[in-house]
Amino acid sequence: MLKLLLYSLLILAATNGFAQTIDSLTQPSPVKTLTLKQYIALQNGDDLYNMAQSGALNHYPLPGNVLKFKKELDLSPVQTTKLTTIDTELLRKKKEMGVFIIRNEKAIDSLFRTRKANDGKVIFYTNRYGIYQGELRNAILQACLSTQKLLTPKQITMFERLYYKY
User: What's the domain count of the chain?
Assistant: First the structure.
């Protein structure tokens, strides 16, 4: 009887957790031109577009990824401190750019919703979008470049073995 009760509670808990996940997926985004997933990612500083790929594929890793393996890579205290600083600044910059991108999306949506869009305004806001994306990618790739400079070739090789193993 106890086993049946525990099994029933386990199923109930799993079902309840699944129901919450479904509910959060169907929630509308505060910005109708962005999905909720995109909106949350921009606010959290997540890289939606894999902007570090050109660095990562050429042995320039992201600092946060390297820090996950600091013991295995035998990072020195100086390396750890500098990588943490780079990673913290990168996250700050990604969140900042996320706010700008969200505001810009709201402005573009508002232009069209209120029928105030014209060639000049569309050019202005889409160019701003390009500037924000460029600034974001620059920050990410600069972090990759700075990270690579802090690591030895042996550490980079070991990192890639560990990171791509997972």
Answer: 1
